Amino acid sequence: MRKLMTVAAAAVFALGAAGCGSSDSGGSNPTVDSGAKFAAGSTMEKLNKAQKITIGTKFDQPLFGLKGLDGKPKGFDVEIGKIVAAKLGIPADKIEWVETPSKVREDSIQQGKVDLVVATYTIKDERKQKVDFAGPYYIAGQDIMVKKGDTSITGPDSFKDGTKKVCSVTGSTPAAEIRKHVKDVAGQLVLFDVYSKCADALKNGQVDAVTTDNVILLGLVDQSKDAFALVGKPFTEEPYGIGLKKGDDAFRTFVNDTLEAAAKDGSYEKAWKDTAGAVDPETPTLPTIDRY
Ligand code: GLU
Q1: Which end of the chain is more exposed for a tag (fewer CB within 10 A), N or C?
Q2: Per-residue pLDDT tens digits for 26-84
Q3: What is the pTM of this model?
Q4: Can you give the residue range of the structural domain that contains 159?
Q5: Is 106 touching ligand 1 by the criterion CB < 6 Å?
Q6: Beta bridge partners of 189
Q7: 100 lines ligand 1 (CB under 6 A)
């Protein structure tokens, strides 16, 4: 965590030293496209005119979306959200961040509570019945976290004998997947609304393991001061998308174009380096965008 903060501080300093971008303690500020012009009546025009965007993210997931003491979330998802806002001509300090735990994401989009969701959000056909996805912008994989030194859990099949308890989050893909591997769902699977509660349950010995995407677990391990460890064998693919209102194809195309441009101009790489890169130094390449 300290390493992460040092990197973030260095990034803010670098921006200030170069004289570009206003300094905002919430992390980096991608260059705002002040000349952005959009088709009349489009979501892009509406947001640009309002000079405000509401983005749903996680508030308790280090490296991807973690609310800091200053009240602002930080992480790779947050940086991706800022990149999209900047292309809309909206500076980072005009983004309203809303916490969207896993199970409320589709509803929040459908009800118009948020304009976008960038929240370790796997692109799934079931979810596409309700919302649309730009991306993917990253591909994670489901893994398992245990107390450091516990060698009794080596993968999802370690839950087959019915003795070990595993924690995940309601409405998440890992919760659905792990059901296939446990013997006794009611007795073994513990569900909360957010992953930080699972980490607490692991610490207190209420559960033997936590399961979700490897990068979320990596952040929790990093935060745990060496108390937790990853089993380290991802057993699913979780392509992360940016959720938006179903049927808004022009907005989806715009967000997809923005992701591709960010991969070309270095801002995607910078977003990673300033956040998750502190723990996973290998910068990913932007996956092929699925323009379905
Ligand atoms: N990526 C998975 C999902 O969208 C797990 C992470 C999460 O719950 O945010 O369900």
Answers
A1: C
A2: 567 888 888 778 999 999 999 999 999 999 999 999 999 999 999 999 999 999 999 99
A3: 0.90
A4: 142-230
A5: no
A6: 166
A7: no
